Amino acid sequence: MIDATQTFHNHEILLTGANGFVGKVMLGLLLDRFPECKHLHILVRPRPGTSAGDRFRRDVLTSPALQAIVERADPSMLRDRITIHPGDIGDSLCGLGEETLEKLSGRVSLVINCAGLVEFFAPVDEAFKSNVDGVENVIGVCRRLKTKLVHVSTCFVCGEADGLVEETEPILGFYPRRKDREDGSFRHRDEIALMRTRIRDVYDSANRGARILPPKEITQKLVDLGAQRAALWGWVNIYTYSKSLGEQLIVDAGRPAAQQMNGRDPIEYSIVRPAIVEAALEFPFPGWVEGGRTAAPLVMMALSGQRYWPLRKDAPLEVVPVDQVASSILTAAALLLNGKAERVYQIGAADRNPVPLGSLVEWMHEDYLKQKRRPKFLSPGVRILTPQRARLLNGILHRRIVGLQRFVVGTRRLAQRAGLPGRRGLGVLATKLRMLGLQATVRDQMLELYQPFMYDNRFIFEAENIRAGHARLRPQDQVKLPWSPERIEWKRYWSEHEVKGIQKWVQAEFTKGRTFKL
Amino acid sequence: MAAPVTQLESGTLENQVLAIIRELLLEQGKTQEAGKLAPASSFQRDLGLASLDLVELVVRCESKLDIELPDEIAEQADSPAGWVRAIQQGSHDSQAKSVYRIVPPSADAPAAPGTARNLAEVLRWHAEAGPGRVHMHLFEEGSGQGITCAQLLNAAETVARGLISKGLRRNDTVALMLPNSADFLHAFFGVVLAGGIPVPIYPPADSSRIAEYTGRQIGLLANAQARFLISFERARAVWPILRVRLPGLLEVTTVAALAELGRRASGRLPQPSGTALIQYTSGSTAEPKGVVLTQAGVLANIRAVGERLSVKPNDAVVSWLPLCSDMGLVGCWLFSLYHGTPLTLLAPQEFQRRPESWLWAIHDSRGTLSAAPNSAYEHCVRRIPMWTLDGIDLSCWRVAVNAGEPVLPSTVRGFVRRFRSTGFRAEAVLPAYGLAESSVALALPVPGHAPAPDEDGFYPVGTPLKGHHVRVVADDGSEVAPGTVGHLQLLRLSSGGGYVGVENPEAQRAAQQAPFCANYMQAQRAAQQAPSCASEPEQWLDSGDLARITDGQITITGRAKEIILKQGRGLAPQAIESAVNDVPGVRAGFVAAIGVPDAMTGTETLVVVAESAATDRMDMQRVRAGVESAVADAIGTDPDEVLLIPPGTLPKTANGKLRRQQSKQLYLAGRLGAQPPPVWLQISGLWTRNSAGLVWNGLAGAVTASRRALVHTLARVVALAGGCLARVAGARWVPVAARWVLRVLGRMPKHEGLALRGPVVVMANRCGPLDPVSLAALVSGDVLFAGAEALHGLPPTTAFLLRPAVAASREEIARALRAKAVVILLPDSPVGVTAARSRFRLDALRAAIDEKVPVVPLAMQELQDQTLTQSGEAIASQGLPVTDLREKVRESLRRVYA
What we know:
CATH superfamily of the largest domain in chain A: NAD(P)-binding Rossmann-like Domain
Radius of gyration of chain B: 40 Å
Strand content of chain B: 15-25%
Mean pLDDT of chain A: 88
Helix content of chain B: 40-55%
Structural class of chain B: alpha/beta
CATH class of the largest domain in chain A: Alpha Beta
Largest interface: A-B, 39 and 45 residues
Structural class of chain A: alpha/beta
CATH topology of the largest domain in chain A: Rossmann fold
Strand content of chain A: 5-15%
Oligomer: heterodimer
Radius of gyration of chain A: 25 Å
Largest sheet of chain B: 7 strands, mixed
Distance between the termini of chain B: 75 Å
Helix content of chain A: 40-55%
């Protein structure tokens, strides 16, 4: 039996990425359910003009997720047992000064690294800065402070997959197209070195060539570079590629001292891999969700009446509520601090309780009809088809819109030339059609972005370790750190929590000050 | 519609754009960014605006500023200042498009350079006489620009220097494969000024297929002995292909590259070549025929046409004809350059897409002279909706030349009737006749009289131009009486050129019939020998057309040669036929390309008739597609119809020559491809020859197919019955039914004494669609599949059979193991994945550990409809961590599998 409450009471924790979606909920869990925890050190990157403390107060403490919790929390805890450290995981030793490190050394016993860049196709240098260099720097801090490390990664580091993805898959030397476990063609050190050279080459050639490239083109070159490299090995995007490299750095640092460079001590670590993180089941309150990096674009598309879905009916969508993820990270932390942790915890639901994509889009379409107050029998319903066909249908739609738009513009010109009235109205109509066309384009792009998750692959993540780990907690702690994806009733969760949460928290943010909606 | 923006100063516009951005930033709560907003700030890095926000910005700018922005703006510019530039540029463009105020021809236009001896002198003369005068309003891809002679001269000199520094010598030929664009103009005069000879070639209709298209032009380039090919950027990729085949070709280059080089070079330009250009026409054979046009010949023709049309200083020319055709190049561009009349030039594609753009260009520029083939007029009649011509005034159009194709009375009448309301006058229509051999025009009527067709429906095309002489001869070469139809021949001007690569007059004459392989030096000599041709006055060329001359007026009545005139472009049937001969499925040598007059389009439709043995609909479709793409590659346009006919039905002469005229008549009568002998006779002959084989094959096929269908149906029935039995009487019937299904299918797995007896957990890879059934069949006693993924990919009936034996939970597996059942664990990976990469769930293994039951790895392999099964050592599960057990079994599985 592991006593998580006592564990957190005994150990001080350094937290990165606390202003992210998962980090915030995890911080809330700690504040709300473990008020006796010893001390939290939080790494926050100062922005120009905003100090780390101000940023933490503005972005984290007063955010909708934490507002109520902060109000009912013990003020002395916030004052005395939380320290904000300005720093950036992109800098060496996370930008923590020598003085700070000296102060922390011997006090902190665990680092939880929630920081990362979640954009699928970010320029590869930026992705590396957060997900590779950042991990390297966090490892440096762990070594310096002699702490253990819980690292938050993603299940999708598995890359292309069809079916169950096991937690026991060896991480070092992994790449999605690896033939078997002996295949040693991928070496993360070489890969990282190569990519750093090539990133430098891009910048060099941009400034040295016949003409100086505008930043836009450099960005595009960097995105292309990352996307090509990721696709070569079988990762579906730059995000998962860089995340996998980060994991390999950690595993490398955790090998026995004899295998390490300079015989350094291995660090003790645990990697937590959430699947797609979605709206909260109950904590901080049902339906809390933030940011548009989740399945939110799909939900918004469905709620604007999208009918054609390129997806595989039998593939589940691997989603897991954010509070389950946060409590799993803390479970892993408690286990690691007690020396009982596994190397990898995958946080998914589909291995026991899958939610098929086909049903998902049908539920969302029902929600859409309900919201539009349209009777179900009048709707033609959703159509599930191949991406090629969806593209074709969307293309036809797009051409029709463009044709109509041209006609309206032509008529408007004619009316103008002939001095007829109605020019204003036709102009408005043309603008509307143009926006419709833009929407269709945006939808197409969005579906293409999600195609690896809906059509090309079938992901089922084995989540045996967290299940077993959770069972080892004391019953009181099991209540404080819930794990229950097996019992989620997906249909209810999806329309009550996910859809409503996205409409309330994401869509408002997303379409704020936007004339056209997705 | 761009009026509000064009009136704005750039500063005001910038302020407006900034205000819109600031508003958006504030609405999104980005107060800091809004404070930092500056014209040079980057949208992405400084302002944190994502792509969707930029789309929003585009929409807002459009509605607030009342402009249209291109969708690519967000990709091209990443700062407010960049957008302002793009908006201003865009408004200039759209201004050019819709409000392009074409300066009306001023009366004080410089007089035509009557003393000029070559085109270079003409250009220099106009550049000096009216440096600011716009020579051409060029519209390409939606934007317009005015080009003065001085600009043209300047740009052309740069190109010329570039060419010289690349190694162009005087009298070298340079092929130009360019669309109607400023590049063409610069390249053409660049070559002329550099002392070279331009050779215009049709650019490909689809620039993405440039490689194939250029490959087809190798014959032409070889014939012209081209030293350079000037084309667009994409064509540079063709260079490696061409280099091998054309040793004389120095480089494939672009105007931009030449200009870049020319800017750095200096020096005197050489004397222009005596040859103005080489115009390729479709010869009567597959080989291309290049007509050498001398400077004097071109200028004489231009002067004669100007005199006939009595060109005035306030005339204006409008053209959309391709500059690579003689009518577009000499007839429109060089003509207006010489006479100082401004030319409005559109792209041919623009005319094809929106024929009204031609008429609007005439309206906008107050055009007086414009020429087009008959099909273009028909295109206008049929394709222009009248509402698009609202407010147009064509009363300025005084000469509408109709030439290059047979002039049809229906087209002329239709055009006049349809556009009378726009001010177009019937007197403007001018049926004319010309051919490349006479530079461009040969005969023109005096304008100002409404043309009237004679009783046969042919329009007289006037008297020959000054300095041009024609005669009509009978088949034997003797001149016929006036009013009698015969072959039209023209007398080459004393200063006229000849054909490329033909040395003496006799050969020149023969050249019209025979293919000729050229050698440039020979062509040079031919050009030098031109004076000697003049000493021989009886140098008559056959035009290939049939005509009669009445009162000095020429009337063209038909065509003797077999050129297909499609949309003003002559196509040699031989070129098409030789391309089609290579298509698989077509009987080589039995192909005919014919042009059939089509009243609907006013031009000829290109019909390709090919003999083919294909009878299957799919095969024919395939052959037809092959023919279409071969023709498209060869000539740049698709055939209008491809007719596949059975072997032996294409009319040929006794010695195997194609009879295209007869083919054409048969086609028109709808009898082409009819079988000569009665059909029943053929079929019965075929029947008697092949009946035995046919019957045997048919029967054998039917028996095989029906046997397979029978077996599968039976197996399905057994599976369904077994499934029902298992649901009623318990899952222990599943193995029994599985054995029966496999027996019916004849696919019992090979198992050397292997029988699975419980309690045991069997872990097997998946090799084929039916392996869960094979595994179930091996079991004696109860069987249970751990997890529904065992049913993935099974046919529905088989899945129905196995469903009762699928475990839902770990407890169920444990219970079954206690009851001594065989639990089968199949991976959750697709069929055919190697054992090492197969993925197994842990429930069954956990149950095995809990119940202390051994685990047996089972490797399956599918070999020619047989499933081979091999078992590894049983592994004791007791006390092992579950993931280690999985690794161990997988390891053993891999060994057995290997």
